[in-house]
Design brief:
The structure holds 2 protein chains of 2 kinds.
Chain A (H helix, E strand, L loop, with lengths): L1 H23 L7 H7 L2 H13 L11 H17 L2 H18 L1
Chain B lengths: L6 H13 L2 H15 L3 H10 L3 H12 L4 H11 L2 H13 L4 H6 L6 H8 L6 H29 L12 H13 L3 H16 L8 H20 L1
The chains are: A mainly alpha, B mainly alpha.
């Protein structure tokens, strides 16, 4: 029962954090400066999220040659092709290849 | 549905490659539920009720280690705090949407849905809604199915494949495709640099600090651009 309560409370809190601004700003005019600032939320969160995903259990960013070259290759492919599947295939191939060579 | 350009078809086509790297995550979650000693069906119900992988993993692990309910819930919600930023970023687009969708949409607003749908916020509102629901329900169904499978096969799949690295790769792709003016790239770089410097801070709070540093940096760079 306490486990269910914990899951339920986490579910409510998660929905709250996802819905807060969407629901509270629904019928309000959002001033232009804020609207322009919100443009940068997506890229900023993604930039920080990518680095955070590379943090190992020891609290350090795991970024060797394999990771760096895979990310560089994936970034270029994404820029040129704008295709998620190509980006994934090239990125992971470079990652496995460089990891196997070193 | 037979028009290849329809937003529903595009949604499913985009969602599936983005889901692949979530599969090992679902298996790890299944393994964590089994190891925590929580009733498996109850643990799996978090996929339906919480529907946020990292948060579910935090909650299940802490409950399994015997943490107090309040502490476990708090930690799980801190992991989820980034959703506040997704909600803020999506708010202008949702203003053009019907009320039912403003209430349903946030339930589906996970990292991948946010990332893919941010590329579509300037679409026609109806197309945006179909695309969002397409990506959202595809992910939701696949997550419910794979986390259920994870209860059985999570304990037997090798983790050395490093399949988890596919997630930052795909997110980098989404980031690159979303940059339509250089100040956005500047914001992303400042955010990434801040998260790097703050990597050893507890509860992955570098993520929030990074995002908070990136937004003003982007605003300042926009001023230079004009």
């Amino acid at each position: 029962m306490t486990t269910f309560l914990a899951i339920f409370a986490t579910g409510i809190g998660t929905y709250f954090s996802r819905s807060l601004f969407i629901l509270s700003l629904a019928n309000r005019r959002i001033p232009d400066p804020i609207r322009r600032a919100l443009d940068h939320v997506g890229p900023s969160v993604l930039g920080a999220l990518i680095v955070t995903m590379l943090i190992g259990p020891d609290g350090r960013v795991m970024m060797g040659y394999a990771e760096a070259s895979a990310l560089a290759a994936a970034g270029l492919v994404a820029l040129r092709t704008r295709n998620h599947i190509f980006t994934l295939m090239v990125g992971m191939s470079v990652f496995w290849l460089v990891r196997a060579l070193l | 549905m037979n028009n290849p350009r329809s937003p529903a078809v595009a949604a499913v086509r985009d969602a599936i490659p983005i889901f692949i790297p979530a599969i090992p995550f679902a298996l790890v979650l299944g393994l964590a539920i089994v190891e925590s000693g929580i009733d498996p069906l109850l643990g799996w119900s978090s996929s339906l009720i919480v529907y946020a992988g990292a948060s579910q993993l935090t909650l299940v692990t802490l409950l399994g280690e015997g943490a107090a309910v309040a502490a476990a819930v708090t930690a799980a919600l801190i992991v989820n705090a980034r959703h506040l930023m997704y909600s803020a970023a999506m708010a202008p687009t949702f203003q053009q949407q019907p009320a039912w969708f403003r209430w349903l949409g946030p339930y589906l607003l996970i990292d991948q849905v946010f990332a893919l749908c941010m590329l579509r916020i300037n679409d026609d509102p109806r197309d945006f809604r179909i695309y969002y629901l397409g990506v959202g329900t595809t992910f939701w169904l696949l997550w419910l199915i794979t986390t259920a499978f994870g209860l059985f096969i999570g304990p037997v799949v090798p983790l050395e494949w490093g399949l988890g690295f596919a997630i930052p790769i795909l997110f980098l792709g989404v980031l690159v495709m979303g940059v339509d003016r250089w100040p956005k790239a500047g914001a992303a770089l400042v955010a990434a640099g801040t998260a790097y410097v703050a990597a050893d801070m507890p509860s992955k709070s570098g993520l929030l600090l990074g995002a908070l540093a990136g937004v003003p940096a982007g605003v300042i760079l926009d001023k230079f651009r004009q």
